[in-house]
Amino acid sequence: MRIEGYAVVSEDGMIADASGLLPPQLITRADQRFFKQGLNGVDAVVHGRNSQEDHPNSAKRHRIVVTRNVADIAPSPANPRAILWNPLGATFEEAVAALDVPIQSAAILGGTDVFGRFLDRYTVFFLSRIAGVRLPGGRPIFPQVPAQTPEAVLAEHGLRDKGCELSDPAARLIISRWERPA
Fold first, then answer.
1. What confidence tens digit (pLDDT) does each residue in 54-78 have?
2. CA 58 from centre of chain
3. Whole-prediction pTM value?
4. Which domains does the chain have, with CATH numbers?
5. CA–CA separation, 48 and 119 (whole Å)
6. What Cα–Cα distance (Å) separates residue 151 from each residue in 15, 50, 80, 154?
7. Are 30 and 61 in contact (CB under 8 A)?
């Protein structure tokens, strides 16, 4: 299965502020377009209960919501296209099978523990970074941040920087593509 990661981070590697919210400083049109296009190309999305996407096709997507509020796998009471998954009670493969549709690709949308859970499985990771924004006390992209940079964590887990996928100097945005060698 192709596993794609998508995250926008501050200079200090944070995906959210101290309250757990994505601040407006991390939202740019170019990144949102790139993100939406990427999600339109996968079969399912995987995210924690606080991470989500709000695009025209969002309601149509199959999704796996990572939560500790179920023992293993359960249907989502709020969305017939979603399941709730506790990684301590079931494997990712079991969660994918529970969707009961063919899934060949999935996008991982966060939060911290969810991004970290897939470090050894990403096929590609799109790391969007906004220069000049720092979020002291914020939520890090990976559990190893801030002791390590997001780039160091990706490299440590076998992904290689393939360079700039997209740049928007006006928004101080650079999206880097990190790939696992074949």
1. 666 777 899 999 999 999 999 999 8
2. 15
3. 0.95
4. 2-179 (3.40.430.10)
5. 15
6. 14, 24, 36, 5
7. no
